[in-house]
């Protein structure tokens, strides 16, 4: 069994990796300057031109990009290639109004597939494996990314998508799925279903590649034990391509960032200052090979730590810790990105006051979302039936805004504690 998908890249010396990054960055900045007027303007505002960029050491001179820039430039403002050369889009889940739409040329997809193939091989996959992909297919990048990687490795690929648990289990048993790719919460759910249905003897998974949301070491142990597999983390985001930006190896101690494609920095989220290695801060990526959607210094809002300690797996690419939180208020609930402002919008549209609380929990490995909303004074004397009808109405409106089911509880006016500083709107009880 091969240990690496692209050994010469994955185990290259630091000097070699830096040389690739230097050369590619210079080319990429020229490409962006020539083709992406939105970013060129940002560079001009900062007084920097491609002539100032000679390599990674000059990266700090360049302006950041944020999700707000992506929304402002929606849909085509950050496109680096003519539409005629783009072959696909993907999009982030559940954001208000303008979603983030990422574009791909065929070459972008090819390189993204390589990144996912590296993750699969690191988890022990080869062409004898049956790769069962239960990430969503469609606008979400999870299904398509792992699907492409699995093809590259030569696995027999089952593009299941998520949901329909009974069918998932049947295919796992009948087709001999050996590698499972899905969110960690769905993996935990599948593990329980396998136990409940007494299918343990018929399902022979050996590894799982789980990401797209935060999960704890406890959850890893639980899934590993129940499914009898080794569970690997995988990280990525739509803006930077999708899954496979970073992936875990057998050491299970952080995720190797594919540095030949993505330059990682850690910054202070308040000041934007670049922090020294080993510091905890916001992860920023610069894509040096992407053509259609070339993100430069994109602020992920994910808080983590980078380390260059030697890895026993032999890979030399820098490792990122599991994200420890976010520097914005985005929640990821059952894989869907949720901003409290979306919930607030719905409440205001429906005539409620902006006094609410969002309670997120994880029960039986599944995220739950409850919204407590204060009734208006005139509702307080309404019958229970009327209140329950109002709750149902809110549930529907929230579902349509978030693409996610929530429970709603209408509470007495003025019963949600007022804060003297920032309102505490989110109570996240998930222990991750
Ligand atoms: O979640 C891409 C992906 C698909 C990654 C499948 C891994 C597996 P988005 O929907 O754009 O893309 O969400 C990106 O999810 O900024 C993180 O906050 C979070 N996230 C992704 N992977 C992990 C992980 C996909 N392994 C956002 N651990 C990111 C914790 C993760 N959080």
Explain what the structure shows.
- The longest helix has 22 residues.
- 31% of the residues lie in helices and 24% in strands.
- The protein starts with 6 loop residues before the first helix and ends with a strand.
- The protein is α/β, with parallel strands linked by helices and 432 residues long.
- The mean pLDDT is 93.
- The protein is globular and about 70 Å long.
- The protein is built from eleven helices and 19 strands.
- Strands 4-3-5-6-7-8-9-13-12-11-10 form an eleven-stranded mixed sheet. Strands 18-17-16-19 form a four-stranded mixed sheet. The chain has a two-stranded antiparallel sheet with strand order 1-2.
- It has two domains: 327 residues, Rossmann fold (3-Layer(aba) Sandwich), CATH 3.40.50.12780; 101 residues, GMP Synthetase, Chain A, domain 3.
- It binds 5'-O-[hydroxy(phenylacetyl)phosphoryl]adenosine (DLL).
- 5'-O-[hydroxy(phenylacetyl)phosphoryl]adenosine binds next to helix 6, strand 7, strand 8 and strand 12.
């Amino acid at each position: 069994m091969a240990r690496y998908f692209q050994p010469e890249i994955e185990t290259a010396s630091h000097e070699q990796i830096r040389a690739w990054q230097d050369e590619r960055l210079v080319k990429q900045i020229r490409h962006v300057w020539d083709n992406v007027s939105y970013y060129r303007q940002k560079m001009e505002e900062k007084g920097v031109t491609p002539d100032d960029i000679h390599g990674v050491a000059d990266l700090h001179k360049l302006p950041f990009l944020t999700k707000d820039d992506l929304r402002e430039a929606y849909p085509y403002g950050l496109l680096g290639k003519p539409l005629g050369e783009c072959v696909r889009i993907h999009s982030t889940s559940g954001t208000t109004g303008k979603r983030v739409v990422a574009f791909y040329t065929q070459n972008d997809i090819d390189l993204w597939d390589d990144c996912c193939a590296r993750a699969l091989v690191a988890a022990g996959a080869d062409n004898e494996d049956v790769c069962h992909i239960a990430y969503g297919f469609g606008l979400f990048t999870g299904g398509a990314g792992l699907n492409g990687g699995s093809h590259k490795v030569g696995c027999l690929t089952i593009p299941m998508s998520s949901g329909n648990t009974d069918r998932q289990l049947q295919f796992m048993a009948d087709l001999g799925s050996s590698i499972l790719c899905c969110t960690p919460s769905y993996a935990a759910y599948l593990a329980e279903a396998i136990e409940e249905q007494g299918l343990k003897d018929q399902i022979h998974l050996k590894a799982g590649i789980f990401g797209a949301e935060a999960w704890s070491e406890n959850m890893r142990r639980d899934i590993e034990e129940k499914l009898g597999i080794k569970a690997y983390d995988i990280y990525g985001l739509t803006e930077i391509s999708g899954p496979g930006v970073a992936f875990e190896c057998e050491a299970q101690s952080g995720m190797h960032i594919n540095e030949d494609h993505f330059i990682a920095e850690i910054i202070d989220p308040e000041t934007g200052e670049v922090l020294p290695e080993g510091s905890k801060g916001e992860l920023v990526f610069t894509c040096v090979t992407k053509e259609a959607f070339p993100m430069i210094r994109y602020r992920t809002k994910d808080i983590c730590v980078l380390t260059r300690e030697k890895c026993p797996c032999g890979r030399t690419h820098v490792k990122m810790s599991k994200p420890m939180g976010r520097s914005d208020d985005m929640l990821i609930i059952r894989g869907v990105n949720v901003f409290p402002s979306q919930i607030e919008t719905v409440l205001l549209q429906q005539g409620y006051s902006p006094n609410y609380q969002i309670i997120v929990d994880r029960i039986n490995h599944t995220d739950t979302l409850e919204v407590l909303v204060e009734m208006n004074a005139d509702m307080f004397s309404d019958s229970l039936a009327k209140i329950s009808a109002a709750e149902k109405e809110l549930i529907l409106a929230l579902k349509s805004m978030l693409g996610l089911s929530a429970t709603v509880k209408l509470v007495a006016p003025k019963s949600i504690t007022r804060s003297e500083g920032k309102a505490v709107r989110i109570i996240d009880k998930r222990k991750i």
